[in-house]
Amino acid sequence: FQANELVTKEITPLECERSEVSFGSGCADVMDDRIVVRAPAGDLLWGVLGEGIDWVGRTGGKERFLITGLLPESDILLDVVTMDAFGQTQRESFSVTTKPLSPHVMLNEVMANPVGPEPHQEWVELYNDGQVDAALGGYRILDIGGDTVLPDVLLPAGQFAVVVSEKFVEDAEVDVPPSPGTIMVVVPVLGKNGLSNSGELIRLVDPEGHTISRFPGLPKPKAGQSVSRLTPSSPDGVSSSFAISEPTPGVPNDVTAEP
Description:
Blueprint: H1 2-8, E1 21-23, E2 26-30, E3 34-38, E4 44-50, E5 53-59, E6 64-68, E7 75-84, E8 89-97, E9 105-111, E10 123-128, E11 134-135, E12 140-143, E13 146-149, E14 154-155, E15 160-165, E16 183-187, E17 202-205, E18 211-215, E19 226-229, E20 242-245
Parallel strand pairs: 15-16
Antiparallel strand pairs: 1-2, 2-3, 3-6, 4-5, 4-7, 7-8, 9-10, 9-19, 10-15, 11-14, 12-13, 12-17, 17-18, 19-20
């Protein structure tokens, strides 16, 4: 009985999509200076070693994690080790050529429940985590039933942008205003009828139609609180990667502050 139970709980390797390659028992999307790994179901401890790379982490099932610090347009050799909950270890080499430099725009912070009037004072913060500038024209923010097309605004590498509606007031005196000098991306309407206070999935889609960032639906924050990504490398679309916090539009998130 115990042997059969063990067999049923073995980690089943993922079937990789066309854009992915096998990475241990998971799948990887190889980019320029990073690799996004999609883990299989089940608890796994990962170790990834290579030149300048020494990463250890745990996944609880179908999560994504990020390996950064790679050289663009370079041949990369990594040693990938996984251990499951039963102590079974797998080890294999991973060899790939990284792509040319590209921007990496992500959803970083969302204010869906401002103290000021809704939906006018709602906003979505973007962050370019890449090494090259991003032209936002053609990017879209999708919520439930809403499709917000972004104008052609330049988001430099390492910079933040705050997406707001035309009726947004930068200093309404009741909500935290964007930091001075913040790039403001103004759209006619943000979301279908504004953003849901009770939490909803928000996606950022690039001009080619690929979803490049996901913001999960979370419990409703109190008025004046935002939902923030813990760090730029926190896995996308995973609730544990985000926290309710004091808003920081236009500057790095501070999730250590008590909301």
